[in-house]
Design goal:
This protein is an alpha+beta fold. The chain is 65% helix and 16% strand.
Length: 336
Amino acid sequence: MAGFDTYFVHEAGTLDALNNLDEGVHLLNAGTPGYLWLDYYRPTQENLAVTAELFQIHLLSVEDCLDDEQIPKINEFDNYVQVLFNKFSYSEKNVLVGEINLFAGKNFLISVEKNNKHTDTLSKAYRELIRDELHKTKLGPVYAMHVILDYIVDNKFGVIEAVGDELARLEDIMTADHQKFDQAELQSIRQTLMGLRKSLFHEREIFVKISRNDIELIPDDAIMHYNDIYDHLTKFFELTEIYREMVTNIIQTNLAMINNDIAIAANNTNFSVKRLTLITTIFMPLALLSGIGGMSEFTMMTGQNNWKTAYAILAVVFILIAGGNYLLLKLLDRKK
């Protein structure tokens, strides 16, 4: 269900839930110390149009809130700074990537979350987070934006760690019995890591711009807090690089095991052929002699009365020929 919640963060350190947007605008016009926070979830274009007109949000920023497959980025306008960030979640061995748009001005903070791929919304978590971190968020919208981003980045670690556990499980399966190894599952993890790396790379660039003090709306004393998020993102980015190297090593190891199996099968085939060749070589001359002489011809040559002695002598001759062939082949093998 589309909609948004309205809150007012007082400089005194309190967070008030407002009934509607008009009430928040009235507090701002009355000069009440603090700022207005609008928390959108699954917004429509009509929802955002009202807010865009009220706070002078650029139409391109509104399009970013409604468009899917945007890369993380930071844009600075005359009266606000926009941060488009990715949030990760892990469910049933799948990594879901969502988007959140944050707009921080001098007296307002707008968080927009489409939440199309997720079954729940983090709005409740954001409310609790703002209340828990009021000592920071009361300082201004930029500090509240930092708290939300810090929370999102911290949640990324659990997702990246889950992907690493799946990768370690596949590695154990390959080591134990690579015949049960699922190459398709490894390729799926590889594609997931590529997506995570792409997201983390662009998110790091956001904080690089902040740390260089390129964003005028972010004061110097807030940059230190954003640098802490940058350190975490750098760590997570390095983890994805390590996992990608693990994927490459697993693919190469699995390929080596497959080649080893092929080599073993080829050796077994060669041994069988060699054994059959040995048998054929030994018995070929015996078959030749049997074919030339024939049983009837041999009896005629030796005489019918001498067949017992003749056949005994023939058997001995065959044994000698077979033994000679066997010894000759063994001698040739030794020379090789």
